[in-house]
Write a structure and sequence with these properties.
This protein is of the alpha/beta class and 251 residues long. It has helices spanning 34-45, 59-71, 102-107, 128-138, 209-228, 237-246, and strands spanning 5-9, 49-54, 75-80, 117-121, 150-155, 169-173, 179-183, 198-206. Strands 1, 2, 3, 4, 5, 6, 7 and 8 form an eight-stranded mixed sheet that branches. The model is unreliable at 15-20 (pLDDT under 50).
Length: 251
Amino acid sequence: MKETALVIMAAGIGSRFGGGIKQLAPVGPGGEIIMDYSIHDALEAGFNKVVFIIRKDLEKDFREIIGNRMEKLVETAYAFQEIDDLPAGFTKPADRTKPWGTGQAILSCKDLVNEPFAVINADDYYGVEAFKLIYDYLSTHADDDKYRYTMVGYHLANTVTDNGYVSRGVCETNENGELVSVTEDDGNTWVQVPDDTTVSMNMWGFTKSILEEIKAGFPAFLDKGLQENPMKCEYFLPTVVSNLLAEDKAT
């Protein structure tokens, strides 16, 4: 079994546990939350480490809700996405309360992850097959002349709901089924797309090289973002990946 980690982005969980916090809402017959199913499926597929990305102020409550249980089943670590954790020379705008996005979230686990790893959201259900697919890829591919990354894609029609709004990244692929780019939903531009369009649910597979690339690109993002949209700019993981694909540094 190859060493592989599951990184769960859970820093968006609010400080009020109970009704209204969707990541912690019970969905199973025994009170299971969605993360219980994701971790179960990941362990069944072969993953042997879990890293939770959370906020430091939520550590105690998070451990009580799920962390302490998981520590009995699998190697478990905690990374902390903090709004003040910025590269040298940058400071947070005084009134900013919004985190810096999924890119910064993944960067927060740079000292905890050395093995190939998958990334998922805390509040999305991915399915058993998805974890098998991504584990099989991570355990059989390594970087060579390019970074060899992967993403589990979904048909759009299977990822939307009649009960509200969801954001999905529309994926462009080439004739070999390789990802070319991901166009994030900005919430403002409405385009009709077919039901079988491949979209991202933020289920990525990486080698450790992605962490260095995220770190390297963060200052340039801040230079631009703090000038153009200092209160709301976000450093998105799919943007980092799309840039690497465009530069022909990754597949």
